[in-house]
Amino acid sequence: MDPKKTIAKLRAELRERDQTIAALMERIAILTERVAALEKNSANSSKPPSSDIVKPPKPTAKDKDGKKAKRKKGAQPGHKRNFRKPIDQKLVDEIVKLELTVCPDCGHKLDLTQTTPKITQQIELVEKPFFITEYQQLMYWCKHCKCYHYVALPEAVVKAGLFGPDMIALTAYLKGRCHVSYRTLKEYFRDVVGVDISTGFLVKQIQKTSASLRSPYEEPAELLKRHYHLHIDETSFKKNGKLQWAWCFVAEFFTFFKIDASRGSKVLKETLGDDFLGSISSDFFSAYLKYKKETETLFQFCWAHLIREIKFLATLDDTKTYGKRLLKCVKRMFATIHRQDELTEIGFKRLMNRHKNAIQKTVGRCVPEHNKAMAPAERFEKHGESYFLFIDDPSNPGPTNNEAEREIRTLIMDRLVTQGVRSEGGNEWHERFWTTVATCRRQGWNVMTFLRDSIFSFLHGLSPPSLLPVMPATEK
């Protein structure tokens, strides 16, 4: 065989092998990144992402062979017992006194002590858990008009219909807070309450509740523009299968939900205006960056999201050293944050500024030529100060945006069950109801009580209750 042909053939085979190896190496790199992405902490968990680095890992239990032991169900050793508080005596309908006449052991006479009796309470449903009022409109004949007249129903009764204020409130609570579908709700009233009603009737009760919450919902909307600090987050929420966005604004004393077709900065401008003077905690989404640029609003970008990116870098071969070095600096900073109560204000700021300088130097030093590593480096170069606003901000928003993430989670749960809404009226219901629920929770108020008051006021033409707290009057 011709040597030249043999050499040419071998070279062709080598080129083909080199191409195959290069393709395989590229494929391995892609798969490595995918595996690392799947192993991201908190990526598929409902717990706050910051807990990955903030909370220390729990000690692993070992069995007698030294292997990792399976965790038992229920309370763990050392768990603090929580005792249920007795039900308020105002709600107790009957008291049964259990008495003794003789000693159960020896049969001798007993003397009653003045010690407070041991109390055991039991709750039971009554046979008919509702009250029906029947209005009989008597008919009269007018000889002058030559016609019959019925006595008019009270306006509140006409406006309410079959369900009174409390029943409407219960319907709204079950539909919204308990994520119950209209069909399941219909079956509940039929099987449990004993009233057979249509799903269309239930829809009308939700519409009445939504109308009653209109004024309480609009109050915090105006106050948002004047608030000193807000936590903001957004999530998808479909209407008739079309994508829209649910925005969550968390202030100190209230939470406000807004559903919009846009995820852009125009929603922030419409809600907060162009001259918002407070500061905002958020993730690094482009809408917040644009609003920050156009309004010069102060931002505290969320460390929890950044931590996930850094931990991801620590899993890649090309960026592992860089990611671990940066992660080490961040861990030191959070260790100081959790000792804040032990430090003076000046001492805390001094330590935090040291951590800030260390992180800024580390993030910009020896950056690997990898897009995943270059992104945070460029981000700190342009917006580094926005990650450390919590150090000097007197309102102390904290380093994460967990406030907004916690509040928006209940709406996400509702979205998983209901799959969104079908009309603009459905959007209004969700905005108003979830604003009410989240705000009552922040205030420590009973949601059902607020719904009752709101619906009662709506039906009787009274001033609606307010979701805003009553601030104590200042002394002159």
Descriptive overview:
- The strands form two sheets. The chain has a five-stranded mixed β-sheet. A two-stranded antiparallel ribbon has the order 1-2.
- Strand 3 (229-236) and strand 4 (245-250) form a beta hairpin.
- The chain is built from 17 helices and seven strands.
- The relative contact order is 0.12.
- Residues 43-48 and 472-476 have low confidence and may be disordered.
- It is an alpha/beta fold.
- The termini are far apart.
- Among the domains are: 158-261 and 423-469, no CATH class; 262-403, no CATH class.
- Helix content is 48%, strand content 8%.
- It has helices at residues 3-38, 51-54, 155-160, 165-176, 182-193, 199-212, 214-224, 265-272, 286-295, 303-313, 320-337, 345-363, 371-383, 389-392, 402-418, 424-443, 447-460, and strands at 139-142, 147-150, 229-236, 245-250, 255-260, 279-282, 298-301.
Biggest β-sheet: strands ordered side by side in the sheet = 5-4-3-6-7
Instruction: Give the end-to-end Cα distance, rounded to a whole number of Å.
Output: 110 Å
The rounded Rg comes to 32 Å
Can you give the helix content as a percent range? 40-55%
Mean pLDDT: 86
User: How can the largest sheet be summarized?
Assistant: 5 strands, mixed
Flag low-confidence runs: 43-48, 472-476
Number of beta-strand segments = 7
Structural class per helix/strand content? Answer: alpha/beta
Number of helices: 17
Can you write the helix and strand succession as a string?
A: HHEEHHHHHEEEHEHEHHHHHHHH
Strand fraction equals 5-15%
Shape: extended
